[in-house]
Amino acid sequence: SKVIYSFATDQDPNAALQNLVLGQVMGLGMKSAGNYIGKKFGVPAVDVPSTKTSHLDIPLQGKQIPKLDPANVRLSSRPDLHLKASPADGTLAKLKTHPPVSVDLPKMKQIRADYNDYVAHKTSVGENPLSMSDWKLKVNNLKQNQTVGKEFKVAQTENFKQIASHVENRITIATTIDGQVKKVQVDAIGFDSNGKIRIQDYTASSNISSKRQAILDNIERNGGVIVGKGKGKFVGGVEIPKGTRIDVIKGGSQFSPEWQMYLNEFPKVQVDKNKVDEILKIQPNPDSGIFRPEPQEYLPKEYRQAHKELFDDGVAAFVKDDFFIQKFGNFGREDGAFVFPKDVAKAMIKEADGNPRKLEALLGLDEGSLGDTPKMVLPQEIHNYRIPDGNEGGSRDNSQWRPGGKTYPGGVPEAVIDPVPKDKVTLVDIW
Predict the structure, then answer these.
(1) Tens of pLDDT along 145-163?
(2) What does the pLDDT look like over 56-80, one tens digit per residue?
(3) What is the pLDDT of residues 250-264, one digit of tens each?
(4) 387, 306 in Cβ contact below 8 A?
(5) From what superkingdom does this record's organism come (predicted)?
(6) What single DSSP character describes residue 49?
(7) Which of 118, 220, 352, 380 lies in disulfide reach of 358, CB 3.0 to 4.6 Å?
């Protein structure tokens, strides 16, 4: 039967059966047709264990061709052959069936066309294209990131609605930078509890583009105006006053959205990137008279004053233990001790939530610097407050130091004061 032939040879029996029928019609006889099959395909030797002969052999009468019951046998030329056996014989019934493979040909053609377009573009600009497998992996990653980004923005918008009213999404604001009009579509805008406009921008990654950040900073400093149709309370022509608070919430950050909003309350300054690079390239060497420039050379007076006011209500710092304080009799190096506003230090403790590694990241310290049981230092005397200039022993060899008076990457306001005698400091266990 066709079932046995297919099972034994793993070939399509239909062609052989057609030749068999052709032999019958042309008078070649059953024997001739059978010989044709034997020469064409070879005679299969089938060994089916525990199979009863009466269930497999179908006696022929005259010149009849064996008939198969289509209800019990479904033929296929593919490996996913489906078989049924009579209740008396469970041998064939034990064979496992395999679902047919489904191939979306139109989708495959579209993927191939998209890849060809990608290759053509890369080639036209003189770049080497990725292999198709690497390209598909990159495309899939981008799609996943887009999905994550959308979900992140939806979740953060809902959080924003808890503290703001009349919240709208995707509102375009124009602002003027160096005589040129720049536009940006912010993710969310609303009114805070005091009736002031407040804006939030979201990114599921660890940062936004420098161009976008520059536009948002300019809106915050100089204001702007809503353009386009707008929505709700925020239609075209509505002015965004300077000083409007803009929070950039980063999903890829290790810090919470609440902490990121807290950072936005601190005074901001935009130091030219080229200037920052120029300062960082200087390797201070006091013995050779090589120093980085003082902050007043690149930080505006208004910012320096606002920065100082953050420290008016007391300062704090963090140490691994009191070993060096006891050894040298002071808190801090001879060229100064790094400190933070006391209320900000307490906020950092809350944000770190018992994790010393996270506290180190907030402070811009190397991992492990504070050990596993850090302590908070509370100086009772403060002399000679100043913004770090990068020449201090605690900053000139620290790759995470940045000009501007804030830790990196934590963004926490920091200052330097003169060393404090050990009898004028208090150490507190923070966890």
Answers:
(1) 666 667 778 888 988 998 8
(2) 444 545 445 555 555 555 544 444 5
(3) 776 677 888 888 888
(4) no
(5) Bacteria
(6) T
(7) 352
Q: Supply the pTM of this predicted model.
A: 0.50
Q: How many CB atoms lie within 10 A of CB 411?
A: 19
Write the burial class of residue 33 (CB in 10 Å: 0-12 exposed, 13-18 middle, 19+ buried): buried
Q: Tally the C-alpha atoms within 13 A of residue 238's C-alpha that lie toward its C-beta.
A: 18
Amino acid symbol at 172? T
- Compute the distance between CA of residue 357 and CA of residue 368 in angstroms, rounded to an integer: 7
Ramachandran angles phi, psi of 176, nearest 5°? -105, 125
Average pLDDT, the chain: 80
CA diameter of the chain: 120
417 pLDDT tier (thresholds 50, 70, 90): very high
Task: Please calculate the CA angle 152-222-149 and round it to the nearest 5 degrees.
Answer: 10
HSE-up of 389 (CA within 13 Å, CB side)?
16
Q: How far apart are CA 359 and CA 430, in angstroms?
A: 11
**CA-to-CA distance for 82 and 70, rounded, in angstroms?**
12
